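hi support,

uploading two proteins for the ticket. first:
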Amino acid sequence: MFRTRDIFVISLLIVVAVLHSYGFGLDISQADRPLLHLFVDAVVVLVSFVGVGYLTWENHHKRKEIEALHTQLHHSHTRISDLHKKLQQASSNYIEVIHEQLQAWELSPTEKQVALLLLKGLSFEEIAAIRATKEKTVRQQAIAIYRKSGLNGRHEFAAWFFEDFLD
């Protein structure tokens, strides 16, 4: 589809080409016109028509490029949407696995909450603020989590859940 600006420029060039063609025709009919004048008029007419043709071709070419990019964008959106759905499904499945493991370690409900917040990477201070408790309480719950899981600290605890992703 032609844009208004493109239509204006092409129309302007067509008008210039037609007017110069008319003037060129009048000049040819008069024998007293210098050859250089006729040559310049012929070049102006030719350049005007070539310009119209080029702008029309360029506009068509750009429209095809835009359509191709639009198609690529649509395919990319579809792929991203599909990947997002797969990621959500994997996340949902992985959350279930985490909860099953926390249950297998026989963590209390508050320990499970703290464990999930630890896996999200929150500090003891941040966890205490979220749970409206003292940081010392969160530290004690974390120690109980590590003891029940048989793991030695926050890094080993997190690595236990994420290690399979690195293989």
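and the second one:
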Amino acid sequence: MLKLSTPSREPFWLDILPGVRIQFRPISVADMLVARAAAAESLGTKVEGAMALDRSTTVAAGAAFTRSLALSGIVAWEGIGDAGGKPIDPNPVAINQLLEVWPAFDAIDRLYVGPALTRLDEKNV
């Protein structure tokens, strides 16, 4: 049974790495649609009516999906600074730099994006 309720829109904190925590907005339907569009855009060109998908294209689509959700979802963070160690606020450039750090990308994908997808699957069973 799908139980309907008003979803919380309150931001929440996740510990991403030792000494690093990030505050996220809950993922909305609009966020998910934008992320899907970002993934679709990265998939490549059509070849005779079918998508030409290879491993690197699929990986790029997944990365675009997670990147889109992180860009729209990150509200604040602690424990992240510039090259000199001075704390910085989240902004698109800094978020993209953070997502180039594999352990950070992996943690955001597992702890923020993954649970949202799982909740969607559970609601549609």
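thanks. also noticed: The chain has four helices and five strands.
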